[in-house]
Structures are given as C-alpha cells and as structure tokens.
Amino acid sequence: MADYKNILLINFGGIGDEILFLPVVQSLKNNFPQAKITFCLEGRSKAFINLTNLIDNFFFIDIKTKNKYIEMLKLYFKALSGRYDLVISSGSNPLISVLLYFTGIKTRIGYSTSSLSKKLLTYPVPLNTNQYASKMYFDLVKPVTKDEFMLPSISVSEIDHIENSVLIHPGVSKISVSKNIIKIFKPEIWAELIKLILKTGKNVYLAGGPDDEECISAIKENLKDADLTNFHDLYGTTKNIYDLAKLIKSVDVMICSDSGPMHIGVAVNTKTIAIFGPTNEKKLFPQNDKFIPITNNADCRPCLWDKRQTTCSELKCLNFNLEKILEFI
C-alpha cells in the first residue's frame, strides 16, 4: 500500500453530504496518520469545518452556480498547485475526471460513470446509489484502505445530559420550499406531536435554525392551549452548528425531518427518529434500534430524487399516525 502524504478530497453538496463523507476522512486518517488532508466543498457548507478536526485545510468551490466552468477552472489550479499525491472525488460529472487527470496527481479515485472516467482515473469505483449514502461514499476509499465501513462520527466537548428529554427539530429549509421540495409535515402537526409527547411527562425542547423561524413561530402559536410546564423553547440559543451538535448530543432522543440535523444526530450517536415523506430512508439513514425512520405505506413513495426533482402536490407520504411515533420514544 502506498504511503500518501498529501491528500485532496472533493465532495460537493450540503452539510448533510459532508457529514456522510466523514467515514472516508476517518479511514484515511486511520491508515495515513501523517498525511495532510485538504477538503474541497461548496461555500454553502462552510459551517461543516466546525464539526471535525480530521481535516487540515479547506477551500471552497461553488460548482453549482452560473459560473460553474470558472469554478471548475479554479478547482483545477487549486489541485495543480497543491502537489497532492492522492485525490478522491465524489463527483459523477465526467469533466471532473478529465480535470483531475491533467493536474498530474498520481493516484486519482472517483466513480466509474463514463468511458472517460474509466480511462482517466487510477481507481474507477462502481457507483452504487442503492445503499446508505455514507456507504456509497465509503466505496471510494476502499482501493487505498482496508477499513470496514463505520458510521459518521462527530466529537463534541463534554456536556451535561438532559434527563427525560426529547428534542424537536423541524428542519425546514426556505431554499427547499422555494424549489417546491416539501419533505416534512406542517407546523400544526408538529404542535400536535409535541402535545402528545408532553402528556407522557417528557421534557420537550424545540430548536431550529434561521430558516425555521416561520415554522417555529407557527408551532408555538399552535401550542397556546397546551400545558407547557415541561416545554422549553430553545430557538435562537444555538448560535452555530457546533452548538446544535452539542444540544443534540445532550438529549435522550431527537425527532426531526430528513435534514442536516438528522445526520448530526447519527454522527453524535443520539437516538434519532427521522420523518421521511418523499425521500428514500434506506439511502439517507442507517436503520437500527437507535436510528429509526418513520414512513407511511403510501404506494407512491419514495419519489423525490428517485423519480422526480420536486415534490408532488398530494403529499400522501406525509400522513402519519402520531400515536405510532410515540412508541419509539
């Protein structure tokens, strides 16, 4: 096995994608502890740098903008000047393999998605999208390490555990809504779920990010007639993604949507109950006693990304019996 000293990783996507990519980084760190690791990601995922200490350097390429070819050129010069001896890229665009080939990086690993990638990559890896996405990414590191797959992991500082606690994180993204991508039920349903949990005697904590302000306000409006003795409004108290990770780590269980906080829940090993409507839980979430996907039996799901790029108008996949969710808490 070669002893790599200077490694470049390229993974475009949101913060959830970067968390799912962490096992690749961990495996490289295990096998090449002296290597310097540089990570290329999109600017929208900049907060990810606060979730890991495994990476030495970061740079940002906004490949999905109107200036994508300029951004690819910027990536080329960054890769060329870095004097890397190993590059791993999750991009499926054939142009990425061309770009990496001309950087002169000796070992190039990516997905085998075209005749070009098969010829230009040192290790063209079969792309298997019918599995947990973190395992799909981990396939990329198998040519150079011998590790078995591990779940994503985030280390947070020592925290006080909150007894008898349930964290609710609705995780609504305004960008998703603007693109007609609806993955979670309405605020009034969240409020009904919170009322049911409060009746069990649990302490319920409500949190959210900047995009969730409207949703959080609507949830609280629908809670006005409830006994809120054990309800705690934490909206606005988590100032950054690391604060959120610490909060998620501190509770007994989190209930959330298919979102970035869901991936953080997995990575800090907190029991996580995730609501899945149109997306495919088998591709986005490990499933065991600690990580529980909630779905219904709508015959049309999953459809988002598998069959369509926007959500349908019926949203039959978001009709749930809330009492059943209580069984998993």
Strand order of the largest sheet: 3-2-1-4-5-6
Overall structural class, as computed from helix and strand content, comes to: alpha/beta
How many β-strand runs? 12
Helix content: 25-40%
Number of helical segments with 4 or more residues: 13
Low-confidence stretches: none
Q: Roughly what is the average pLDDT, rounded to an integer? A: 91
CATH topology annotation of the largest domain: Rossmann fold
Oligomer state of the chains in this structure: single chain
> What is the CATH superfamily classification of the largest domain?
Glycogen Phosphorylase B
Rg (C-alpha, Å)? 21 Å
Strand content: 15-25%
CATH architecture of the largest domain: 3-Layer(aba) Sandwich
Structure notes:
- The protein starts with 5 loop residues before the first strand and ends with a helix.
- The chain has a six-stranded parallel beta sheet with strand order 3-2-1-4-5-6.
- It is globular.
- It has helices at residues 15-20, 22-31, 68-81, 94-103, 115-120, 133-138, 174-178, 187-199, 213-221, 241-250, 260-267, 281-284, 322-326; strands at 6-10, 36-41, 57-60, 86-89, 107-111, 123-125, 165-169, 203-206, 231-233, 253-257, 271-275, 291-294.
- The relative contact order is 0.12.
- The chain contains 13 helices and twelve strands.
- Helices cover 32% and strands 16% of the residues.
- The protein is of the alpha/beta class.
- The protein has two domains: 6-141, Glycogen Phosphorylase B (Rossmann fold); 165-326, Rossmann fold, CATH 3.40.50.2000.
- The model has no long low-confidence stretch (mean pLDDT 91).
